Amino acid sequence: MAAHAACHDRIYRYFRRRAENASTAEDLCAEVFRIAWEKSGQGEELSAMFLFGVAQNVLRNHLRSAARSANLMLQLQLERTEQARDADGSVQEALARLKPDEREVLLLTYWDGFSSTELSDLLNTTATAIRMRLHRARKALGRLLQTEHEPEEYQR
């Protein structure tokens, strides 16, 4: 396609000035030429002005999508913050008092939903070792929570 050879660098520079990084600019540029390729299948030669019109639309769509994504991330962060405030403070305190390895395996399992097999790949160990770590971490967390909830007369 002649339009690609004639306008690719100009379209890329257009996106590079407006996109957050080079990778995004490349993706947006490729999208413009994908759309142009679909249009040129109808036998018409595409002008630079047509390509820049498509580029403007692609950029607008990208910016709308990025704004929606940023808004969603903000809402998720606010939801997490509210959940953390509402959650039982003793559980958070007990988690903070665990050894880092114990805390990590608990959070990756229960917060992030990884299986022992997935964790073994992630942490470069065996699934059996992960299950043992998880067992020990649960016991340690249970002990910490139990001592926090016992009346002072039983803690001696």
Structural summary, described in words:
This protein is an all-alpha fold and 156 residues long. It is 81% helix and 0% strand. It contains 7 helices and no strands. Helix 4 (89-97) packs across helix 7 (127-149) and helix 6 (116-123) crosses helix 7. The longest helix is centred in the middle third of the chain and has 39 residues, at 48-86. The N and C termini lie far apart (83 Å).
Please count the helical segments: 7
Structural class: mainly alpha
How much of the polypeptide forms β-strand, as a percent range? under 5%
Indicate the radius of gyration in whole angstroms: 27 Å
Mean of residue pLDDT values: 84
Silhouette: elongated
Q: Distance between the terminal alpha carbons, to the nearest Å?
A: 83 Å
For the biggest sheet, the summary is:
none
Helix and strand run: HHHHHHH
Low-confidence stretches: none
**Number of DSSP strands?**
0
Helix content: over 70%
